[in-house]
Every structure is written in structure tokens, then in C-alpha cells.
Amino acid sequence: MAESTSVSVKSATKKLLQLVNLERKEVSYIYFFAALGGIIQLSLPLGIQAIIGLLFGGILSASLIVLICFVVLGVMLAGILQVMQMRVSERIQQRIFARLTFAYAYRIPKIDLLSVDNYYLPELVNRFFDTASLQKGLSKLLLDIPAASIQILFGLILLSFYHPIFIVFGIVLLAVVLIIFYLTSPKGLRSSIEESDYKYQVAHWLEEISRAVKTFKFSQNFGLHLKKTDKLTAGYLDARTEHFNVLILQYRVLIAFKVTITAAMLIIGSLLLIRQQINLGQFVAAEIIIIGTLSSVEKLIVSLETVYDVMTSIEKLDKVLQKPHDPESSKLSITDADMSQSVDISVANLSFAYQEGKQVINNLSFAVKPGEKVCIRGTEGSGKTTLLRVLAGLYGSYKGQILVNGVPLQNLPAEQWRSKVAVYFAREELFSGTFWDNLTLGNEKIGISSVIEVCNLVGLADYISSREQGYQSILDPLGQKLSDTAVQKILIARCMLAKPSLLLLESGWQNIEEPYRRLITEKLMNDRTFTVMAITDNPEFIKRCDKVIDLSTTQKA
Ligand SMILES: Nc1ncnc2c1ncn2[C@@H]1O[C@H](COP(=O)(O)OP(=O)(O)OP(=O)(O)O)[C@@H](O)[C@H]1O
């Protein structure tokens, strides 16, 4: 089933125009070059008309040579202008890529997590691949549409000088183009988006097979991987056929129209010539202009396919960019003095639900003083991880009150708060990059001595330094070649290096082997410069905590 087909041609056109507007300077160059090119190209039929005139007049003079040179020069200039247009279009393509890359990199960490709760984010980000279609499509549109439109306009103006009948030709031409677009574009756009939806579903499914490749190795005989692929491919092919039918319809109308107009124009031209209302030179010139105009109309109609592709690409790319992001407007400016190293947290009547009516946290209240060590426990699914996520400021839509040093959490700028919080999520993953990047997360204030100190503490130092490139060694994507404990050690070391005010810990790190687990526990318990809130069932750890929040009992209270 397609994921979104309710895009109207109007809103898609608006987005396309907004994008073109961002490049208005470059686009105006393209139009300028196209207009010049259009004028110069007209020199061809006019020149030929004059040459025929001279030949028929039997004049073989210098003016004939000048005219020939004039026509050749016109063709050459038109070519040069086209090259200039191509340069501008290349610049636009490069800018589109750079703009979208940064828009994605900037936006993704800011996405409101609840808004993508139903998505697998890396899959959603596949939409970035539509950048290539947008670059190609837009540059084609920017080159073809202005050139074709201007040629049609100039051609029609010139024809109307030969005979008023050609004005009628112009009006019919314009009307046909508009009617074709008006009648077919909603279906064209809808089927194009549907086709693209299926394309992404197929890609997602292939990625899923690859991600769970070990599982699928064992289930090949059942053919699930092929059955689902077959279903999605059938959907794609149906949508594509529907889209192709729209394009074919447009093309058929165009061919019928071209045949009629060519016949009509030849007959009208011949009649005008026979009646001596135009001369032979004018007849040839008019036919050249008509053929040129018709081929420009053809270009316009064929460009419709590109228009659909571009509109679809914009919709797809927007799927990530238009997701709600962390709110910024209501935030107050907080100074360093307001946010000292250790934080005091006060939670009153906190409730949270992922879906309306399904409370995960219900009326929870507690207070944590700076530097306190708090254990969180509770039955499976009682909301322990959710509580950490809410406290980390990842979900803004909670009810009740969370005060940080007396300041409501919703008034704290998200980035500022998150720079004070470190979170160990058991399912958090490493990213493709060096050990150094995975440990420091790009924080240039962290020096090598702190990194080594923490790595010694968690038992990573020897492991990393025995690698050929030490801390600059590249981790494989998702850290799959690392042992589970190595991943846990990197994640806990990352949290410690952040020197947080509040350290939120899911369980998992407690699987780290002795003596490192004991060293980590000592650090967490003895260092009072930061508060710890840890999900744990470990009696030893719980015994040493200042406070225990039991969600299975607290919430029912
Ligand atoms: N992103 C999410 N979207 C919707 N529901 C969610 C989401 N994350 C968790 N839940 C649901 O919220 C409830 C609480 O989940 P949470 O992971 O916070 O519990 P937990 O106490 O940490 O559980 P566990 O001990 O099994 O890890 C569960 O019913 C879970 O299915």
C-alpha cells in the first residue's frame, strides 16, 4: 500500500516554485540566455528567407556571403549561450546537493522523536536519494522549459507577421498545452508519488533482509523474502504502469495534434503562397518556424514527466525535513550560573503516554538533589526507559512538572539541557567512525589524557591501543565486529567523558566484567559532581543508592 498519495498539484507546484525561488538569480540568468538564444535562433529562418530572396533575385553578391556568415554566426552564438546555460544549471545542481545535505544533517538530530515513532528513521532518511532525481530533473526543467517557452513565444510573434491566421495557430497551441496539463496532472502526480512510495518500500524490504541476513539464511526455504518482494514489486509495477499510461496519453494527444497542425500549416502556407500572399522565402521561413515551434511544444509536453519526477522528489525529500522538530520558540535564555554543574531535579505529577489513553507514566512525583544516586526499578514495561527519555528532554509532550534547578524543563533550550545530560541507552548504537569520534562525539574540549583515564577505568585502553591505528581506528558500522561488552564499555566511557550533570543509565553496562564493573560502580557512586539515575535490579547497586524509585508501585499509588 502506498504511504502518501494525497499531495495536490497546487501544493506540489508551490513547493517547486519555492525551490526555484531560492535560485532566482541563477534562474534569471538562464531566462536571459534562453531569450537571447531564442532571438538568435530566429535569425536562422529569417536569414534563410533572405538568402532565398537573393537567390531568386539572381543576385550573387557580397550580401549573400554576409547573410550566410550571419546565419552561421547565429547558430554558433546559440550554441555558446547553451553552454552558458549549462554552467548555470550545474551550479544550481551543486547548490541543491549542498543545501539538502546540510538541511538533513542539521535537522535529523532535532527531529521530534515521537513524530517518527512509527518509522524506522534510517529508512525514512533513504528519501535523501531523491536529491539525485531533483538535481537532474530540475536542471532539465530549467534548461528545457525556458528555452522551449521562449522559442514558442518568439516563433508565434514572428509567424503573426506573415499572416493573422498564424495567431489562431498560436492560441490553439497554447490552449492544447494547458488543457493537457490540466486534465492529466493530478493523476500524473498521484501515480508518480505512488510509484515512488513502492520504490522506497522495496528498498526498505531489501535493507531489512540485509539487516537480518542471518535470520533469512535460515528461512530461505519458506521464501518469505521472495513473497514479500513479489507483493511490493507488483505494487510498484502497477503504479508505474498507471503513471506510464498518463505519459502515453499526453504523448498520443501531442502526436495527433502535431499531425493536424503540420498538415494544416502546410496547406495554409501553400494556399497563401499560391495566392501570392507570401513569397517562397517567407513560406520556407514560416515552415521552419512552425517546425521549431512544434518541437518546442513537444519538449514542453515531454518535460511533464520531469515535472512529475521533480515534484515527487520534493515531496519525498520533504518527508524528513517537514517532520516536527524540537520546539525553540518558548525557550528562555539560561546562563551558566543558572545551570551549575550539579542539578537539582524535582518531578511532580508526571504523566506520559506514547498514544492517547495509554499511560506509560502515571502521576509520578519525586525529587533528586544534586549529586544524588537514584535507582529506578519496576516490572517489565513499567516505563523505566520512558522516564529516562522524558528526563533527557527527548519527549516534550508530558503532563505535570519537571523542574531543573527550579527551571521548568520545557523552558530550557533543548541543546543546553542535553549538553548537561549523558544517557546510556542499552540499545544505543555506535556509528561508523573512529573510536575517538565514538568516545568524544566531536567534543574538542575532551583531551587525550581524559580519554585514556576513562578508557583505563572501563577496561578499554589496552583493547584500543593494541589496534593498528589506536584511537583513530575505524569502527565498523554498528560496531558489529566488536564484542557486546566492548560496545557497552564504549557507551559508558562516552557518558563519563561528557562530564554530565545528570547521568541516566539503562541496564546493560552491568554485564561488563570484574574488576571494571566495580571500578565503574565506584566512580558512579563516589563522584558527587554528577547525579545518577540508573535502571537496575542489582541488589548491590540498589543498596548503595540514595534513593529508589519503584515504578511498578509508585505508579499504581
Ligand atoms: N517508542 C515507543 N512508542 C510506543 N510505545 C512505546 C515506545 N517505547 C516504549 N513503548 C511502550 O511503553 C511501555 C513502557 O516501555 P519502557 O521501555 O519505558 O518500559 P521499561 O520499564 O523500560 O521496560 P523494560 O524493562 O522491558 O525495558 C511499554 O508498553 C512499551 O511497549
TrEMBL record:
Residues 32-309 form the ABC transmembrane type-1 domain. InterPro entries: AAA+_ATPase (IPR003593), ABC1_TM_dom (IPR011527), ABC1_TM_sf (IPR036640), ABC_transporter-like_ATP-bd (IPR003439), P-loop_NTPase (IPR027417), Type_1_exporter (IPR039421). The chain crosses the membrane at residues 29-52, 58-81, 141-159, 165-183, 253-274. Its main location: membrane. PROSITE patterns: ABC_TM1F (PS50929), ABC_TRANSPORTER_2 (PS50893). Residues 345-557 form the ABC transporter domain. One of its GO terms (cellular component) is plasma membrane. GO terms for molecular function: ABC-type oligopeptide transporter activity; ATP binding; ATP hydrolysis activity. It is a multi-pass membrane protein. SMART domains: AAA. It is found in: Cell membrane. The keyword Transmembrane applies. Keywords: ATP-binding, Membrane, Nucleotide-binding, Transmembrane, Transmembrane helix. PANTHER family: ATP-DEPENDENT PERMEASE MDL1, MITOCHONDRIAL, TOXIN SECRETION ABC TRANSPORTER ATP-BINDING PROTEIN. This is ABC transporter ATP-binding protein. It comes from Mucilaginibacter terrenus. The lineage of its organism: Bacteria, Pseudomonadati, Bacteroidota, Sphingobacteriia, Sphingobacteriales.
